[in-house]
Every structure is written in C-alpha cells, then in structure tokens.
Design goal:
187 residues; alpha/beta; TIM Barrel; 3-stranded parallel sheet; 6-stranded parallel sheet
Length: 187
C-alpha cells in the first residue's frame, strides 16, 4: 500500500493551529481535550512523551469521536502501530526514519514526517510526500527558511512546530507553504 501523506491536505485544511498536548496524567486527557474544543480547536496532537499518551489518544477518540486526534512525537514503528490501534487519525514525528516511512507505507493513517532541511523534504518528496512537519521550526530558520524554500519547492507544504507562539503563529500562517502550525501555548 502506498503511504497516505497526500490525505493530510484534507485532514489539516480544517484547522490552522494544532495544539500539541503532553498528557501527564490520564485523568487530565478528557478535561484538557474538552477545554481545547470549547476554545475552537477540533484537531489535537497528543504526544507520546509520557507513558499515558497512547491511552489518552484512545480515551479521547472514544469519548469525543468528532475530534480529530493525532499521535505526536512518534519515533518508531511500534509507537506508530500503537497509535493506529488507539484510534489516531494521523501520526506526527519530529523526524523520519526508514522504519517510520515503512510503517506509513503500510498504514491507512497519514504520516506527517519531520524535516529540518530542504534536502530532507526533497528526499521525501521523491517518495511522494507533500506535507511535512518543520521541526524545530524556530531553531532551523523558521519564517525566513520557509520563505526561502517556497520559490524552488512551491509544491511542498509545512506544519511548523517548535518555538512558535500565538503571536508568531500568525506570521507563519501568512506563508503560502504553511498549511497549519503546531504549538503548546494554548494548552
């Protein structure tokens, strides 16, 4: 099966900001999700930085089926598969490995691979990817970098995360190669 990165366009076109959420206690998952949804955020990224990340994804997808829940900070095939089983609608990684790309190729759940350079994005574009997480966005050049690669690579779209705040998010979203941004300022 070919990867489904191209379906991210439809999935992410309904949001401009994705809250990146670290759930430390499972009992906080539903209240946090409800609070964010009440503020207009209907796409959420639950990171796998804690032991309860997978359980939080499963709980939120079960209790709040209209919310688009993704798994973030996915760094290996086992986490990718666990996120899919938990009900994640998309998977995000701070980078990409051959193992993660293979997992994405064999899954119906879209993968947003992390890149930090134009070369990484071009390599993945050769594999058919169009959408990427730019991470860590501010540290790797942020808005000036995205403006620079817009000319030679206009077909590529990014979800920058890492160091973005409410104020800078508007500047990122003004770029034509930015589909949405990720951040934790609203959490």
């Amino acid at each position: 099966m070919a990867h489904t990165n191209h379906t991210l366009g439809n999935l992410l076109s309904h949001t401009t900001v994705i809250p990146v959420i670290v759930v430390k206690e499972l009992s906080d998952a539903i209240p946090m999700a409800k609070d964010l949804v009440s503020k207009g955020f209907n796409t959420l990224e639950i990171t796998l930085r804690t032991e309860c990340g997978i359980l939080a994804i499963a709980e939120i997808t079960r209790e709040m089926p209209d919310v688009v829940v993704g798994a973030g900070t996915v760094t290996n095939k086992g986490q990718y598969e666990a996120a899919v089983i938990a009900g994640a609608k998309f998977v995000v990684s701070p980078g990409h490995t051959d193992e993660l790309l293979d997992a994405a190729d064999n899954s119906e759940i879209p993968f947003l691979p992390g890149v930090a350079t134009p070369s990484e994005a071009m390599k993945l574009a050769d594999r058919g990817y169009q959408y990427f997480k730019l991470f860590p966005a501010e540290a790797v050049g942020g808005i000036p970098m995205l403006k620079s690669i817009m000319g030679p690579l206009p077909q590529l779209k990014f979800c920058p995360t890492g160091g973005i705040n409410e104020k800078s998010s508007h500047d990122y979203l003004a770029l034509s190669n930015v589909i949405c941004v990720g951040g934790s300022w609203m959490v």
